[in-house]
Amino acid sequence: MKKIYLHPLPVRIWHWVNAISFIVLIVTGLQIRYREILGLMKFREAVDIHNIFGFILIFNFFIWLVFYIVSGKIKIYIPPLNLKKFVMGSLKQARYYGYGILMGEPNPHHSTPDNKFNPMQQMAYLAIMLLLIPLQLLSGLLLWDAKRFSDFISLAGGIKIVDTVHVFLFLFFMSFLFVHIYLATLGHTATAHIKAMFTGYEELEEEHGH
Amino acid sequence: MSEESAEKISGKSTFGLVIFGPILGMLYVCLLPIIALMTLLVAIPELASAKKTDILQSSGMCMGCHSSQEFTKTFRNKEKMSVFVNEKDFKGSVHRFLNCTDCHGKISLDTHPGNSAMYEDRAAFTVAMASACRKCHSDSQLKAKPNHAFLTNKTNGPPCMQCHGAHGVKRIAEWKPALSSNNQYCLTCHSQNISKKHKNGETLSLHIDAAGLSASVHNKHDCSDCHTEYTRTSHPVKEFQSSRTHSIAVSEACKKCHADKYQAVHESIHFKMISEGNLKAPVCTDCHGFHSVGPKETYETLSGVPCRKCHEDIFKIYSKSVHGMAKAKGTHNAPLCYSCHFAHEVKVTTMTEKIKGACLGCHKDVEEAHAKWLPNAALHLSAIACAACHSPGSGKGIYLRLYDQETGKPFTEEQMLKLMGGTYEGMARKMDPHGDGIESDELWSLVSRLNEKGSNAKVTFFGRMDVSNGSEAHQLSFKKNAVKECENCHSQESDFFKSVTVAVVKADGRMTRYKAKPEVLGSMFSLLSLKQFYVLGSTRLKVLDWIGILMVFGGMSVPIAHITLRAITSPIREAKRMNNMRKEGKR
């Protein structure tokens, strides 16, 4: 079995810290927003935990940012500048998920350390990592101390706007999580990608017909 | 020697008599009618009076008894009065030429001294006796001075003797200088039980309690220091519509010395109400009294604080509060009304920042104390009225107030009217066209109208959590009773969010409240109109909840749908795999 070292240790740590933080933030976020429905913990506890993990997430984001920029690996997030190539690649990938995978066709994208994401992933994660996550962290930070950041909040249009953005993104991340986890099971075995996220090594399916 | 000279004289006089006797005799005869006439003239009044009261021809007979101090007269109500007449006083009086009977005309020896008393009491006797004065002193004489005329016209005016004395009556000019001060002069009448009527029929007592006046802080002042138009020689008669207009008018007098306080009052809600024609609002005298103005401390006690006269309901609530109880115990710095509301520049403190300033004035460590347990303490303190948590059992509500974000100041009703036109009365219809509580779209259209027309104002609503009425803000309790649980507010079920009020503040701090529907807090429109108000867990957008449900189901449906498709197509893949294996086997 051929193995490929796809996820360096810092990335793996970052990923799982992120994962835990996301779960905790989602649960406490739901608790804060829907106290009368959920009732898992006290409001105060939910807010405190939410704040702590919010800061962990902020810190973690910068670990990711610094690691990827310093190592130059950030380029794996950048879709091909050639539009035609990018569109074709995306279409090919979409066709795979919608049809090829059902027909037993092989994944047109082969992850390598330098080209980890398929064009669709590149597009999605670029938006998530450089737009949605920073926006979520920023809105969370503003809400964390609305008095201190009142000028920024006013600039953003008001605390209700900031909160709506924060909640909307939270709902997006929550729903995205289902897709993310599902897609993680679409390796050559159901656990292949997940294992790789622990070990760093992605097992590659023996290519038939070679 | 002396005999000789006497003889000489007599010798001469004999000769003189012969000559002058007839001349004198003739002169006497000629003058006789004149003398007779004069004698008659002198005697006639005597004869006349002798005819009327032939028994008492002179005071001598009366004084036989009345110079003794032992005699008294008993009225029907058993009240006793000495009938002693101080002869010396009488002789020194302006009436010294009169006889007793000139005034006491009805006295007759047949009936005097009588056994049965004619009068109910001394007062009735005095009033009856005053009619004697009218025998000589004509109405026109009495009414020559306006204040005197005013008194004598009164049915309840004091009888003459009350001011002028009875037997020792003196000319006014004689006793005026004897009065030690102006006040004594005025009190001659005003210590009496006198009153006047206002145009509306109300009675104004003109009686001055001399003891109260001398106990007041103004006891060194002359009456005319305040009543500037009144002097010994001038006593204008003024007329007022009612007691209120009188009180308001006389309060102007305080301005003379207390200009600073008067200025402060000018900025108060009380003054504002009066200037708007609400005469119920208090003026100086309503709190301080008229003549018995006490020192400052008089008004700084639970029993003396004048506010309770009108605000008794609030005072009752206050007296049960932690502050009221502390004050009752004698805690010297426990706050009373004026501590928060200020004595003269009385402000409407509900809904303004000023009241918080009043709390923080004493509770200086509030922010640090709250920060020890309350996250975002400063934020909480800015958005929640102290009373909202510290007066347990009070009604709660959200108050939405318009602010100009450019200036950070409240956007007032006056500014609104300027932009929107119309009247105060029409405002309610503009704010709430259906009269069923302001709805979310109405709230939004209000904000957008204010922003589109107000060229340089950036108007938005700020939300504040407060007790539902001003009285409840006074039932502040002990710290241990204050709200501490976050859930009290951070829940859609919290009472706060069931009552939403749009509070439009006037420039003077008063506010007009318009009921709004609680739904406005979670409506889509609130993103536009209530951008600056948001409470975790409580003011969530309804739409966002639905979007959330859709998104989560959408997210979950992707794997479900894909797994389903994969399950359906698994025979195809299986066939393909078998095919491949066969191909490989062939190889």
Describe it.
The complex is a heterodimer of chains A (210) and B (587). In chain A, 68% of the residues lie in helices and 4% in strands. Chain A contains eight helices and two strands. Chain A has a two-stranded antiparallel ribbon. Chain A is globular, with a radius of gyration of 19 Å. Chain A starts with a strand and ends in a 6-residue tail after the last strand. Chain B has 587 residues and is of the alpha+beta class. In chain B, 47% of the residues lie in helices and 7% in strands. Chain B contains 28 helices and nine strands. Chain B has helices at 2-52, 59-66, 87-91, 100-103, 122-130, 139-142, 146-153, 160-164, 172-175, 182-190, 210-215, 223-226, 243-251, 259-266, 269-275, 284-288, 312-320, 322-329, 337-341, 353-362, 366-371, 377-383, 386-390, 413-420, 424-431, 440-453, 526-529, 542-586; strands spanning 72-74, 80-82, 195-197, 203-205, 396-404, 409-410, 459-467, 500-505, 511-516. Chain B is rod-shaped and about 210 Å long. The chains are: A mainly alpha (210), B alpha+beta (587). The A-B interface holds A 32-36, 42-44, 47-48, 97, 101-104, 145-147, 154, 157-161, 163-164, 167-168, 171-172, 174-179, 181-182, 208 and B 375-376, 378-379, 382, 405, 460, 486-487, 490-493, 526-527, 530-534, 536-537, 539-541, 544, 547-548, 551-552, 554-556, 558-559, 562-563, 565-566, 569, 572-573, 576-577, 580, 584.
